[in-house]
From TrEMBL:
Name assigned to this protein: M6 family metalloprotease domain-containing protein
Entries under InterPro entries matching the protein: Peptidase_M6-like_domain (IPR008757)
GO molecular function annotations of the record: metallopeptidase activity
Signal peptide range in chain numbering: 1-22
Compositional bias segments (type: Pro residues): 29-46
Keyword Signal attached: yes
Domain of life: Bacteria
Natural source organism: Streptomyces piniterrae
UniProt region (Disordered), positions on chain: 26-55
Length: 424
């Protein structure tokens, strides 16, 4: 869930339906993967790096100043809080182990080694001066400097409690892990939220703004419940929510193809557009098919593989594009039941929580192929296009033809770009 201060547009809560079960305390890492050597990514550039919203998280190819860097070394301060009406019943180390090293490993493998995430825990419970009920924490609550309740008040009290012992200048991200018994269980209300980007109106004694801060409440369930932290931290990197923030369920937008829509249940990898935006792809892993350009063939390497071309971007207007990538079953994508070519629409001018990214469903009348896990929205699990399929975007004239699945798991596609803008 991404939230901004009161004077900005408040956007909605994290899309998770999770449970607080004691059995989920020992949250494991994803299945073992081979070591990934350090690599250098590249921030998006060129004609396919579409501009967009600049004052909030969005699908804009570039992220404005104020957000945390998303590649290279990222240092995250981990703080633990409890309350007079919700004292911690486990050690800070046990709460830390619910998320790490699993969340670190997830970022490392998803980024192909381009994000080195270093969590730095302050291993003691920080006792808040007020009961959790007095702070009035609610789903979608604002960060309001003019209020004596809510996230501003909680953050102010937290900063006061640790300012003497913490140098906030040394961190890119702040994670506040509340004792799991504070507030409602995640099955009733998901409270986890992130305040990122601009100055929130609170500064530490070191003179740095309190921002890019994620508050993690309760516990989620599933095989990789730690990923609520990856989802929330991705807001600090500039990524938007891909589900409907107003609670609307239909039509399905992205489903289990990206944790910015579903961050519960089995693991799922980030979409290639997001990896490009975050600086996790090298320049030669992105292909651009500009409007009015010639048709061309490309070989796509699945997200589960380290090398190769990851996405082809087909601009359809100044702030919209089709993106084409390959997905197959792997350690970060165990729920992929129909390997193939995934096509989705990106709109860089659509706000977070309002459908800025939509997967094109190759089988719109099916119920999906991964139907055995209640934490996976099955409808789009068979959205991929297989060899022989042709998709044409009627509005722009762009088309994608899946020509072949090769023995090495790559896919050969033919891309016909959108027609040239007659106004250009």
């Amino acid at each position: 869930m991404r939230q901004r201060q009161k004077i900005s547009a408040a956007l909605a809560a994290s899309a998770a339906t999770a449970a607080a079960a004691a059995a989920t305390m020992a949250m494991g890492s994803p299945p073992p993967t081979t070591d990934i050597p350090p690599a250098v990514g590249a921030p998006p550039s060129g004609p396919c790096a579409l501009p967009g919203i600049r004052d909030d998280v969005s699908e804009s190819a570039t992220t404005p100043a104020g957000y945390a860097r998303s590649y290279g070394t990222v240092k995250a301060l981990i703080l633990f809080v409890d309350f007079p009406d919700a004292r911690a019943t486990l050690s800070p180390r046990a709460r830390f182990a619910e998320f790490f090293p699993a969340a670190t490993d997830f970022f490392r493998t998803s980024s192909y080694g381009r994000l080195s995430y270093h969590p730095k825990p302050l291993l003691r419970w920080i006792h808040m001066p007020q009961p959790v009920s007095a702070y009035g924490i609610t789903r979608g609550g604002a960060f309001d400097p003019d209020s004596d309740t809510g996230y501003y008040a909680l953050s102010r009290d937290l900063v006061r409690a640790v300012d003497a012992s913490v140098d906030f200048r040394g961190y890119d991200i702040i994670n506040v892990l509340a004792t799991p018994n504070a507030g409602p269980a995640a099955t009733r209300t998901v409270l986890s939220v992130t305040f990122s980007g601009g100055d929130m109106g609170l500064r530490t004694a070191d003179g740095v703004p309190f921002r890019n801060a994620s508050f993690i409440w309760s516990r989620q369930v599933g095989d990789s419940a730690f990923r609520v932290l990856n989802h929330e931290n991705a807001h600090s990197f500039g990524l938007p929510d891909l589900y409907y923030a107003n609670g609307r369920d239909t039509p399905a937008l992205v489903g289990h193809w990206d944790p910015m829509d579903e961050d519960w249940g089995p693991s799922n990898d980030f979409l290639g557009w997001h990896k490009w935006k975050l600086g996790w792809l090298a320049a030669d892993q992105v292909r651009c098919a500009p409007r009015g350009g010639p048709a061309a063939e490309h070989t796509l390497s699945p997200a589960a593989a380290v090398g190769g071309t990851k996405i082809v971007v087909i601009p359809t207007a100044a702030r919209t594009a089709l993106v084409v990538e390959a997905r197959s079953r792997g350690p970060r994508d165990p729920a992929v039941c129909r390997p193939g070519v995934l096509i989705y629409r990106v709109a860089t001018d659509v706000p977070s929580g309002h459908g800025p990214l939509r997967v094109v469903d190759a089988n719109p009348r099916s119920r999906g192929c991964f139907t055995t896990n209640k934490y996976v929205d099955a409808e789009l699990t068979d959205a991929t296009f297989r060899p022989g399929a042709i998709y044409t975007d009627r509005a722009s004239g762009a088309s994608v033809t899946v020509l072949e699945e090769r023995a090495d798991g790559t896919y050969r596609v033919r891309i016909s770009p959108a027609a040239r803008d007659p106004r250009a």
